[in-house]
Design a protein that fits this description.
159 residues; Metal Binding Protein, Guanine Nucleotide Exchange Factor, Chain A; mainly beta
Length: 159
């Protein structure tokens, strides 16, 4: 089992398996969520996840949609502000890797949304780097739809 928790310890959880990918996201929203150059996220299946404590501490914020549904959702502990897993995950979801108290048995495998990285961000590893269009093609097997306007956090209609 891999244990995880928020900064204050109110939200605790465990995962029996991390399926990956283990990506470092540099999109505007992940940078805002983490307060850093990006956030390391690790893929998990809901069946391998168990919330141990703190359900009443998990809050969610759904940001305005930039490209297509679903909305970017940020889950966090209402006591300390740490990001958290979602309250009721289903299927595949991602957990901020910094919450893990034990090794998940894998390391980051790529940087994503690098076209949105901060101007001061300098990549210092040899991990593959993917732009929005490249990661879309990798995940969906087709090009990013040309009719969808690429926006940033500041371009959201409801921001």
């Amino acid at each position: 089992m891999v244990r995880g928790s928020c900064l204050c310890g109110s939200v605790t959880f465990q995962i029996s398996d991390a399926v990956g990918p283990f990506e470092i996201c540099h999109c505007n929203r992940c940078r805002k969520k983490s307060g850093s150059n990006g956030i390391a996220m690790i893929g998990v299946l809901a069946e391998h996840y168990q919330l141990i404590s703190g359900a009443s501490y998990i809050q969610s914020y759904a940001a305005p949609i930039l490209h297509m549904e679903p909305a970017y959702t940020s889950n966090f502990c209402k006591s300390c502000g740490s990001p958290t897993p979602p309250l009721e995950p289903s299927g595949f979801f991602e957990i901020p890797a910094g919450l893990l108290d034990d090794s998940p048995g894998m390391a980051p495998d790529k940087h994503i949304y690098t076209d949105f990285s901060a101007g001061w961000d300098k990549f210092s590893d040899d991990l593959p780097r993917y732009t929005l269009k490249e990661i879309y093609r990798l995940r969906h097997g087709r090009d990013f739809p040309p009719h969808i306007e690429i926006k940033t956090h500041y371009d959201a209609d409801d921001a």
